[in-house]
UniProtKB/TrEMBL annotation:
Protein name per Swiss-Prot or TrEMBL: GNAT family N-acetyltransferase
Classification via InterPro entries: Acyl_CoA_acyltransferase (IPR016181), GNAT_dom (IPR000182)
Pfam families found in the cross-reference section: Acetyltransf_3
Taxonomic lineage: Bacteria, Pseudomonadati, Pseudomonadota, Gammaproteobacteria, Moraxellales
Residues of the N-acetyltransferase domain: 14-152
Species for this entry: Acinetobacter chinensis
Length: 182
């Protein structure tokens, strides 16, 4: 699928696809003790991260997964990551998103802009009907973020809360949130 990148640009940040050269940046983010309290562990070895990206690129070519670097619009510097994966087709066309991390150089509204860009890409370009995702129970800030945007908290276990976000909700809030998309 040809991605329309001009559509993946919000008020202060935009997305570009992850490349092998981003391995060191991703290692730095994922091994930052301030940022990695509520995400799954990944290797701090740059060459292992590079190898992971290489196999991811095969999935990207097949349209099975998309891993983006979130960059500032003013200087193009990378400030974070976000990933769409676990594409399901039954009973609904649904995707999971995660690997969502923003560093201290993020513009103030990078979080809301990047979440909106994920939904915009998934619902408008990839034609998904719904998103499913999970958040660590102790990650209350991110729980509140999703609830504020209209996610449905559907279930939980000892470790995680589970949510869905239907495309209809995205189209419902779009007018109010258009200002973040620029
Ligand atoms: C998750 C993460 C990317 C979120 O970014 P963040 O900048 O902390 O997000 P915030 O909820 O503070 O939102 C940023 C701004 O957008 C605003 N905002 C958030 N949701 C909004 C909404 N629905 N409408 C309007 N504004 C909104 C916030 O109020 C905040 O602005 P403020 O600083 O003036 O209060 C970041 O905290 C992070 O990298 N965390 C570590 C990794 C992690 O836990 N990832 C998630 C795993 S599930």
């Amino acid at each position: 699928m040809k991605i329309e990148f001009d559509q993946l640009r919000a008020g202060t940040v935009h997305f570009r696809l992850v490349e092998e050269e981003d391995a060191a940046f991703i290692c730095g983010l994922r091994n930052n003790p301030v940022l990695n309290k509520h995400i799954s562990q990944s290797s701090a070895v740059v060459d292992e991260q590079r190898a992971w990206i290489k196999t991811y690129k095969n999935r990207e070519n097949l349209g099975q997964e998309y891993y983006f670097i979130i960059c500032r619009n003013d200087n193009n510097l990378p400030v974070g990551t976000i990933r769409l994966y676990d594409f399901q087709h039954n009973p609904k066309k649904s995707f999971c998103w995660g690997s969502w991390i923003l560093n201290e150089n993020k513009p103030r509204f990078a979080a809301i802009e990047s979440a909106l860009l994920v939904y915009k890409f998934a619902f408008e370009q990839l034609k998904f009907e719904q998103s499913h995702f999970d958040v660590r129970k102790e990650n209350t800030g991110v729980h509140n973020f999703h609830m504020r945007l209209g996610a449905q908290h559907i279930d939980g276990n000892e470790l995680d809360n589970f949510y869905i976000y239907p495309s209809s909700k995205y189209y419902e809030i779009l007018n109010e949130y258009q200002k973040f998309l620029g």
